Amino acid sequence: MHTEFVMPGAQSGGSEGSESVGSRRRRAGDSRKDGRLAAGIRLRQISAPQTKQGFALQAFRDLILHGDLKPGDWIRVDEWAQRLGVSPTPVRESLRQMEAQGLVRIHTHIGAQVRAYSVTDFSEVYRIRAALEALAVQLALEKMTPQQTKTFASELLELNRTLAELIRDGAHEAARAMNKDFHWRICEAAESETLLMILDSLWITYPFDTLQLVPGRAEEIAEEHADLIEAIGRRDSQRAANAMRHHLDTAATKLLESVRRGQVALFQEGDSMDDGSSPTLPSASSAYPLPVPESDPP
Predict the structure, then answer these.
(1) 61 or 225: which carries more pLDDT confidence?
(2) Residue 261: CB partners within 8 Å, gap ≥ 6?
(3) 3-class DSSP assignment, residue 106
(4) DSSP state of 298
(5) Residue 107, Ramachandran bin (φ over 0: left; ψ between -120 and 50: alpha; else beta)
(6) In total, how many domains does the chain have?
(7) What is the DSSP letter of 267?
(8) Is there a single domain that holds both residue 32 and residue 161?
(9) Average pLDDT, the chain
(10) Residue 240, pLDDT score
């Protein structure tokens, strides 16, 4: 599958830091929905006025977040500059910024490699996400009137129905996007920019989800969402928080079980599971026509 990005024509009047995290997420969600065009080509329109470096950084973050660039994949500056329609300099600068954020490792004179993850990294991220997204539910309910809660629960119910339909239709990529939109809608309702910034960094640092990776998990996700929505509709903040924790704890447990069974390989070489087995680095992404080595540097 080939992915293209469109650089916005106007470069004045804004910067990459001018948007809130929430508005950037909403725009990214809209572009994903608009981007499923035809014949396996996804065109992601990055429309906010920004620098070329900001454009490249956002493009790479989007690719990593949605699993198009996977752990171990190589990013060659010249090739990606051509693909993004910019000079090598903004690509190089964006990769340096991503290295500082822990998303890639730069190998001098070779390129950048998308970071691989350890079991410890994975477990920590899911535990933190469970705590923070449970807090987001509680904060959201504290700030809502009963009528607002009713409307909010109805919105989530509709999102979850759409998710269930996408899962039944086998539209896995669209289902993944909808699942993220569902979670992010709850996080936004907390109305805490600080919380959104922290969660955004967690989602991009470890972008995988069990809907994508664990066999049979997709059907369970919609059911767990339904329990969460029911608690929200009843304005039971503690039950809703517990439902969110259970949902994410279950996701982590299911994924680790799949790793142990050899169904999923996400973690860096040399890492070991609790039972002493050694997960391996995943093969390179096949989403792009350019060759990407699986292990050795280019």
Answers:
(1) 225
(2) none
(3) strand
(4) -
(5) beta
(6) 2
(7) B
(8) no
(9) 75
(10) 98
pLDDT for residue 163 is more than 80: yes
Burial of 207 (0-12, 13-18, 19+ CB in 10 A): buried
As a whole number of Å, the end-to-end CA separation of the chain is: 22
Cβ proximity of 104 and 91 under 8 Å: no
137 and 202 in a single domain? The answer is yes
Please state, in angstroms and as integers, the Cα–Cα distance from residue 158 to each residue in 164, 173, 229, following that order.
Answer: 10, 18, 10
Give kind and range of the element (H or E) at residue 44: strand 41-45
pLDDT at site 266:
55
Please indicate, yes or no, whether the overall pTM of this predicted structure exceeds 0.85.
no
Q: Under 8 Å CB-to-CB from 67, ≥6 apart: which residues?
A: 176, 207, 208, 212
Contact 295, 70 (CB under 8 A): no
CATH of residue 25's domain is 1.10.10.10
Q: Are residues 128 and 202 in the same domain?
A: yes
CB 4 within 8 A of CB 43: yes
- 169 shares its domain with 255: yes
Amino acid identity, residue 202?
A: L
Instruction: Write phi, then psi, for 283 (nearest 5 degrees).
Output: -70, 160
Whether residue 69 is found in the same domain as residue 183: no
Phi-psi region of 276 (alpha: psi -120 to 50; beta: other; left: phi over 0): left
pLDDT in tens, 226-266: 999 999 999 999 999 999 999 999 988 888 887 777 665 55
Estimate the share of the chain in helix, then strand, then coil, as percent rounded to the nearest 5.
60, 10, 35
Tokens of 154: 């109805």
pLDDT-derived band at 173 (thresholds 50, 70, 90) equals confident
Mean pLDDT of 174-179: 87
Q: Is the pLDDT of residue 40 over 90?
A: no
Indicate if the pLDDT at residue 63 is higher than 50.
yes
**125 shares its domain with 204:** yes
Record the tokens describing residue 275, joined without a space: 């039972």
Domain that holds residue 197: 119-260
